[in-house]
Amino acid sequence: MGCAPAVLSGLRWVGALLIIAAGAGTACAADCAPAATLVDRAICADPQARKAEEELDRAYAALAGRLGETQRAALQGDQAVWLERRQRCTNYREDTEIVDDVCVVRETGERIRLLRGEPEFSGPDAPRFLPVFYYRKAPEVLISMAWPNADGPGMAPFNELLNKSTAEMKVLPGVVDGPYSLDEVPALEMVERYRIQHASARLISVIFSGYEDTGGAHAFGSYYSVNYLPVEGRPLCLDDVVDPEALARLVPICRADILAERERRGDGPWEAEPAVRDGFISGAIIEIGGWSFDRDGAVIRYNYDSYGRDGYDCRIPWAELKAVAKMNAPLPFE
Asked: Is the pLDDT of residue 257 over 50?
């Protein structure tokens, strides 16, 4: 769905080619009759899901109409990869594959916001955002990435920061510039997306997540954030927020969150000794790349294995964070 080649979507979409031919204002059209996949059939059968799909098409068409030829082609490739990934929104119940409706709604909503350049929370005087895409497909290689650029006074350093942070992900000499060679990596699939969790004149918080598969036994997940202070024109540092001795006060909050999440997921008891367990949590807290901020406060990511599979989020509400933060911490506590 959403204006990509039918071979990946399972539905017959004509929007992408029409947009390229006719420019902005051409809507995507869907014919659900040939829908072949479980996820696509579920979307076509649900009026609310169809309505969200129409929003997705409009967002795609509006963005494609604003982009130049190179970025429009990258958007089309990235959209096809996203559509294929959304087909994985399924679970199993008694050996029967069923659609994970929550996953479909979440993925579709996040994609609409990405295409529109919309933060999940937008505060006073937030800048406008435009997604930037990188897409490259070659034999045994697929790289599909997106990151935001901001439009507004003083936002050039933010854009440069994100352009640099994503540049190192573009790999393989002979395919794209980077640290790997084809001899070292016989196959590569790399996908990265973002969510703007918070955007205001005081703070921009962006989460990047994705995976890298080099053909081994497991793919490696990635999850990191970029927090930026527009007024000061620089990234947020952990030392801006809390003193080292205050970090210890966050450990019990995160421990409670993680243990509760483990129970909700049915992950079983945490086998590590309490001191070792709290050491792991402390290690996550001191990494600013694991911190992000949303409407309600700070979110600290704890990944429990080296493959970066679904980690746990520790949530620190603004009131609790303010109680341990430095007096002049540059955060939107109001």
From this structure: yes
pTM equals 0.81
DSSP β-bridge partners for residue 199: 122, 204
Same domain, 220 and 261: no
Task: Please identify, among 213, 235, 257, the residue that sits at the C-terminal boundary of a domain.
Answer: 235
Instruction: Give the helix/strand (H/E) hosting 128.
Output: strand 128-138
Does residue 178 register a pLDDT over 60?
no
Does a structural domain hold residue 334? no
Is pLDDT of 42 > 80?
Answer: yes
Domain region containing 208: 117-235
**Closest C-alpha to 30, from 46, 45, 44, 47:** 44
* % of the chain surpassing 70 pLDDT: 80
Q: Which two tokens stand for residue 152?
A: 């507004």
Neighbour count for residue 293 (Cβ, 10 Å): 26
Q: Is residue 210 part of a domain?
A: yes
Q: Which residue has the tokens 């927090």?
A: 227
Phi-psi domain of 283 (left: phi exceeds 0; alpha: psi -120 through 50; beta: other): alpha
CA-based nearest residue to 86, from 68, 108, 102? 108
For residues 184 and 272, membership in a common domain is answered with no
- CATH number of the domain where residue 127 is located: 3.30.565.40
pLDDT at 13 over 50: no
Residue 332 included in any domain: no
pLDDT in tens, 85-106: 999 999 888 788 999 999 999 9
Distance of CA 171 to the CA centre of its chain: 20
